[in-house]
């Protein structure tokens, strides 16, 4: 059985499963729901207890897919989803008003086929709604038993503190991997001070850290990586140095590159629970096996010394939606 990590008071498998790519944004998304459901079932069989989705993935289709996959297997699974990028009140842009929080959750519960969500995240911080109002609405849903734990995604330290003062935050979700080290400077210290867990999304660098992407050849025309700064303008070629060092460590320990990248994340602490995404059974087997890969102190130190990737992690529009100051509403 896989070991567990702590997200506040919530225990989850050390390796989770991000379901987004089964329905949106990546090459092959939406092509094989049957294979995706087999992948989710296989993950559960291997001890994965943490499955992550969001209403905006599709939109809606991913939650429906996860709901079908978990039918008859809901018990013991930590289901995480997110609200705020879809408005149910007619408000343009981000919507974390209390009315939208409740409407979004009711829709998610229906699509997921469940009476509660184990971990409900605000997908992006809404600068026009005070975080205290949003978290207050979430706290009401916790009191009603419809939500067990609350989380934030891409929130600044100041916003995290403000939210946590209203109701305990179990987890923060952000990008964290060997090519995105940003959380180490300010986010992780605050999370550890407050007892909040970290859920790294894209822990394999959008597939880059697997070593399987050395050019854009083979990616669908609408694959979002074709416009991502780290894959364009010569940055992909510059970033291959990171993959080459991961490969060197992988050869030493007899593991795959993906397993080494995940093992490095797990070595950062028992409050870190990455959610690698995949649509394939074989990849789930590979990723979950990272729980058994032991890196030496020297190997971790070598990987720690790698400089982060070249290029911003999102395009300008998506970077603008990330809360950095906490000085919004």
Succession of helices and strands: EEEHEHEHEHEHEHEHHHHH
Major sheet, described briefly?
7 strands, parallel
CATH hierarchy class name of the domain at 4-204 and 268-292? Alpha Beta
Termini separation: 44 Å
How many helices in DSSP terms? 11
CATH domain fold name of the domain at 4-204 and 268-292: TIM Barrel
Oligomer: single chain
Integer-rounded radius of gyration:
19 Å
Going across the major beta sheet, what is the strand order? Answer: 3-4-5-6-7-8-9
Percent helix: 25-40%
Classification by helices and strands: alpha/beta
Task: Report on this structure.
This protein has 11 helices and 9 strands. The chain has about 325 residues and is α/β, with parallel strands linked by helices. It has a domain at about 5-205 and about 270-290: NADP-dependent oxidoreductase domain (TIM Barrel), CATH 3.20.20.100. Strands 3-4-5-6-7-8-9 form a 7-stranded parallel beta sheet, with helices on one face. A two-stranded antiparallel sheet has the order 1-2. Helix 3 (about 100-110) links the parallel strand 5 (about 80-85) and strand 6. Helix 1 (about 35-45) packs across helix 2 (about 60-70) and helix 3 packs across helix 4. The longest helix has 19 residues, at about 235-255.
Give a short synopsis of this structure:
36% of the residues lie in helices and 13% in strands.
List keywords for this structure.
329 residues, two-stranded antiparallel ribbon, 36% helix, 11 helices, TIM Barrel, globular, alpha/beta
